[in-house]
Specification:
Blueprint lengths: L1 E5 L4 H12 L3 E6 L2 H14 L4 E6 L5 H12 L6 E4 L16 H27 L2 E6 L12 H21 L4 E8 L5 H4 L11 H12 L9 E4 L7
Parallel strand pairs: 1-2, 1-4, 2-3, 4-5, 5-6, 6-7
């Protein structure tokens, strides 16, 4: 099975890659940092000899790069799973955040998923199968202090997911919006928060992988996950 994962060099993206590599799938991984991406590829290939991995280092917040990565993946056949995981977080309140923050959040968190999805959808629609996971956030559901343009982009990504879900029902293509709360990744490592207070990347990866295994008749439309003690 061909599996596309963006933002795959670390954090949640790397956890997704590990889960699908362990199952022996053909992975197509993308991230901006070529060194980290290659390191992830080599580690997974050494650990899981039955999988295959192709990588392309690219900044898919740029439309042309997102489309190019989609075309790169299509050279190897039609993808069955697409995980739009690439994203970043810039904190701030709308009235005072630095100029350009809005554009950066929309390009990275929304446009990358939009353009990559559109690049691979024709092949998936022709095959009449597939599953698209969009990594939204708890920030897609409720406004919070210092969320600013990040929250706007995640609300929009959830809207994108909902529209896509309706459009693709006749083509047997599933769409799942994944909305995790705080997960212990690099962005939290220097925060001073006890890691035991947060979810682990494997928690989210396990849920996504489980949703991908359901019968063609079943679609998990939304996955909402929070730390047991609630949001931070």
């Amino acid at each position: 099975m061909n599996v596309i994962i963006t933002g795959a060099s670390k954090g949640l993206g790397e956890a997704f890659a590990e889960k699908f590599a362990a199952a022996g799938h053909h992975l197509f991984l993308c991230a901006r940092n070529e060194a980290l991406l290659t390191e992830t590829k080599n580690r997974l290939l050494e650990k899981y000899a039955n999988c295959s991995i192709d990588v392309l280092a690219a900044d898919i917040s740029k439309k042309e790069n997102a489309i190019a990565f989609g075309n790169f993946c299509l050279q190897f056949g039609t993808p069955q799973i697409l995980i739009n995981n690439a994203g970043s977080f810039l904190p701030g309140n709308i009235h005072e955040e630095k100029d350009g923050t809005f554009e950066a959040m929309i390009d990275t968190n929304l446009s990358s998923a939009y353009h990559l999805t559109r690049a691979v959808l024709p092949a998936m629609m022709q095959a009449k199968r597939g599953h698209i996971f969009n990594m939204c956030s708890i920030a897609s559901l409720a406004a919070y202090k210092n969320g600013g343009s990040y929250s706007i982009s995640k609300f929009a990504l959830l809207g994108f997911s909902k529209n896509l879900r309706e459009e693709l029902k006749p083509y047997n293509i599933k769409v799942t919006a994944v909305m995790p709360g705080a997960v212990y990744t690099d962005s939290w490592s220097s925060s001073g928060v006890n890691p035991e207070r947060l979810m682990q990347v494997d928690d989210v990866a396990n849920m996504v992988y489980a949703a991908s295994l359901l019968s063609p008749q079943a679609c998990v439309e939304e996955i909402i996950m929070r730390p047991q003690l609630g949001d931070l």
